[in-house]
Design brief:
The complex is a heterodimer of chains A (about 260) and B (about 400). Chain A is an all-alpha fold. Chain A is built from twelve helices and two strands. Chain A has a single domain, classed as MetI-like (MetI-like fold), CATH 1.10.3720. In chain B, strands 1, 2, 3, 4, 7, 12, 13 and 14 form an eight-stranded mixed beta sheet that branches. In chain B, strands 9-10-8-11 form a four-stranded mixed beta sheet, covered by helices on one side. A two-stranded antiparallel ribbon of chain B has the order 5-6. The chains are: A mainly alpha (about 260), B alpha/beta (about 400). At the A-B interface, helix 1, helix 3 and helix 11 of A face helix 1, helix 3, helix 7 and helix 14 of B.
């Protein structure tokens, strides 16, 4: 398992150092940094990387905002029987094909003629905003589940104690729940962030003419594999940096 | 210790890869076969959408099942959206054949991924339009590398409910101040740069563009600049035909380049307001070739398929469904009887050699200019990079 995992990453990295031959019909296995130089030299790739990061951050934030009340309701408010039902309801969308869900969103946010447009007369249409919404929807369960698990571990007595001491709900949430929940939120963000960083199918379906790292890799890999490999290394580096950064929070034990 | 074990594992993997990597091709891939042997009961194809219909899109269009019944070769077809995808899929060596356009066929030949074809084994070959035979995109070094399938142009399509003045020029898709901003589409592949070059050939004659696939750096830069301007009015690019069809059907796209099959698909789904035209500047287009993989596991079935797909009756079905000119003009009579349509071959000018020559068929741009104008043309690798830049 480890071998296949590390092996494929190693071959990705190795390929990124090769280059295309003169007429573009094959790959020359000469080690060099020319692909990375091109990535650094041409500002379009920096723009695309920053856009991808922005989308991943927005999706993660949106998922946190959506998942917190859902998970809190599930863990602390409803009866245990209803709770099981809600857990199932959160997980059910994961059983449906990703492609079908993304395609349905095409029909929902398209403008004119989409469901939103017909119902409310307005719609984000295909583009970055639409893409953030769709990705946030697709990855929401990956955020709800860790936060829910974190809340389950949080003793009710702490909430009671806080309110006995006169704190209103908002204060308790900020000062008691959120700090204890931080590792769970960070754990969820690893999923939503990395999944958003690598996506290209939803981008293609609902992103309009938005270009992200994944779509460039997909568009170029058949014609210029080494360059596509070099660009694919970028999100790997971003994720490694991200995970190293959050290791201190203890969130990795929550994964 | 950990490192040693890891290295051991890596060595094992390398050995394994070496053992598997040596897949010596059956027979000699550089020689065309003399006879078609017994069918291998299976056939794996890479096709353009609409080239191998098995009735799943519409029960009225099924020429795969009759082939299976006739030959016993069970067809598995994989639809590719672009020539680049076709090339990539062919390089896996898992497919027997492909319906390649000119912008991948030459690359396939150069890379040794396809074998020469013995055209005398294809009964219908003699009937095919002569202007499709022995062309640069299907012949190399005097050897035929494939069987012509059909050809056609990339049209300009619009939604006549929204775009009320029928356009007759590509300028409507390159107009920065287009009233249809955000609802214009373009083909999402580097080869689309040729569409801009073709337009500039007429619109800016001082650039001196002759062949949209043989561009000097200056001509290329002008085409790329035009497409960067166009980017602001594009709602979304398409390369998946079903996505393009659904966008036109919904109305989120109202204007842009298209294939006839997209119009047909949208109309099957209920659209009644789509119009398509060949603009006055002419158009880019494709002339497709069935090619046999040099690693084909089922070459006999592939030969049977090539013979089958070029027969008048099947050519009639595929050309009518896809909306293209059949390579076999005998199909015209079959279209007339099967679909009560006597105009198809006239509309697509199936036997009009002069018209076929006026279409700029997709080709792979190379440093050594395709039109023989020199050795300073922009190679395809740069087209790919430029396409990423255009989309920003």
């Amino acid at each position: 398992m480890l071998i296949f995992y590390v092996g494929s990453l190693a071959s990705l990295f190795l390929t990124s150092l090769y280059r295309l031959n003169e007429d573009g019909s094959g790959i020359e296995k000469v080690i060099g940094l020319q692909n990375y130089k091109e990535l650094a030299h041409n500002s379009v790739y920096l723009d695309i990387t920053l856009r991808t990061l922005k989308i991943a951050v927005l999706v993660t934030l949106l998922d946190i905002v959506l998942a917190l009340p859902i998970a809190f309701f599930m863990a602390k408010v409803v009866s245990p029987r209803f709770r099981r039902l809600l857990v199932a309801a959160v997980l059910v969308p994961l059983w449906a094909s990703y492609l079908v869900k993304a395609f349905s969103w095409r029909a929902i946010i398209g403008s004119p003629g989409g469901v939103l447009d017909k119902t409310f007369g307005m719609s984000p249409n295909y583009g970055e905003i639409g893409l953030v919404i769709v990705l946030a929807y697709l990855w929401l369960p990956y955020m709800v589940v860790p936060i829910y698990a974190g809340l389950e571990r949080l003793p009710d007595s702490l909430l009671d104690a806080s309110s006995d001491l006169g704190a209103h709900f908002g204060f308790t949430f900020r000062k008691v729940v959120l700090p204890l929940l931080m590792p769970a939120i960070v754990a969820g963000s690893v999923f939503t962030f990395s999944l958003s960083l690598g996506d290209y199918i939803a981008v293609d379906l609902v992103g309009g003419n938005t270009q992200v790292i994944g779509s460039v890799v997909f568009d170029t890999f058949s014609a210029d594999l080494p360059f596509a490999a070099a660009f694919a290394v970028v999100p790997v580096i971003i994720m490694v940096a991200y995970i190293l950064g959050i290791r201190r929070t203890g969130a990795l034990e929550n994964l | 210790m950990k490192t040693a074990r890891f290295c051991g594992a890596m060595v094992a993997i390398t050995l394994l890869a070496a053992a598997c990597g040596d897949d010596s091709p059956s027979a000699n891939p550089n020689e065309a076969p003399r006879v078609i042997g017994e069918g291998e009961k299976a056939l794996n194809l890479i096709v353009w959408a609409g080239y191998a219909e098995d009735g799943s899109t519409s029960p009225d269009y099924d020429w795969v099942h009759p082939f299976q019944d006739k030959t016993g070769c069970i067809v598995k077809s994989k639809i590719a959206a672009t020539s680049d995808e076709m090339f990539q899929l062919m390089s896996t060596g898992q497919y027997d054949g492909v319906s390649a356009s000119g912008d991948s066929s030459v690359r396939l030949i150069d890379a040794g991924l396809v074998s020469p074809v013995n055209t005398s084994l294809i009964q219908n070959y003699a009937d095919l339009s002569s202007f499709l035979k022995n062309q640069p995109y299907n012949t190399s070094g005097g050897k035929n590398y494939g069987i012509p399938h059909g050809w056609g142009a990339n049209y300009l399509m619009w939604n006549s409910d929204v775009v009320t003045t029928a356009p007759d020029s590509w300028n409507v898709v390159f107009d920065k101040a287009s009233p249809y901003k955000g609802k214009v589409t373009a083909y999402d592949a580097p080869i689309y740069i040729a569409d801009a070059a073709l337009y500039l050939k007429t619109a800016q004659p001082d650039l001196g563009i002759k062949d949209p696939y043989s561009l000097t750096q200056k001509q290329f830069d002008a085409s790329v600049a035009l497409l960067k301007d166009q980017h602001s009015i594009i709602g979304e690019y398409w390369n998946d035909y079903s996505k393009a069809a659904s966008a036109f059907e919904q109305g989120s796209t109202v204007l842009g380049t298209t294939w006839q099959v997209i119009k047909n698909t949208a109309e099957l789904a209920g659209s009644k307001n789509l119009q398509a035209v060949l603009p006055k500047e002419g158009a880019t287009g494709w002339s497709d070739t069935w090619m046999v993989s040099s690693k084909a596991a089922h070459p006999n079935c592939m030969y049977m398929w090539m013979d089958y797909i070029t027969s008048p009756d099947v050519q009639a079905q595929v050309a009518y469904y896809f909306g293209e000119a059949p390579a076999n003009p005998k199909a015209c009579a079959d279209i007339a009887t099967r679909y009560q349509d006597t105009t198809h071959c006239d509309v697509f000018k199936a036997t009009d050699e002069a018209f076929a020559k006026s279409i700029s068929f997709w080709a792979t741009p190379r440093k050594k200019c395709l039109d023989g104008s020199g050795n300073d043309c922009v190679p395809f690798v740069d087209w790919i990079k430029a396409w990423t830049e255009i989309k920003g």
